[in-house]
Write a structure and sequence with these properties.
alpha+beta, SH3 type barrels, 17% helix, Fe-transptr_FeoA-like, transition metal ion binding
């Protein structure tokens, strides 16, 4: 069974960040405030599916490419 990631969320669905699958990308995501334990909600999807917009911790919105979102594993 594969881990659930942010890119697998449906619009309006929530998840809690568990870990990251890519070390280099994890540093970038951590700097943008995607911290383990933070709740994320998928708010919007671009017309062609990439990028997506997530809400992090109920505080701010963040736009991510699908390859970036695929690195964020959820609980």
């Amino acid at each position: 069974m594969s881990a659930r990631t942010v890119c697998s969320l449906r619009k309006g669905e929530k998840g809690v960040i568990k870990s990251f699958t890519n070390r280099e990308m994890s540093l970038k995501l951590l700097e943008m405030g995607c911290l383990p334990g933070s709740e994320v909600r998928l708010d919007a999807i671009a017309p062609f599916g990439d990028p997506i917009c997530i809400n992090v911790g109920g505080c701010y919105s963040l736009s991510l490419r699908l390859n970036e979102a695929a690195v964020i594993e959820l609980e």
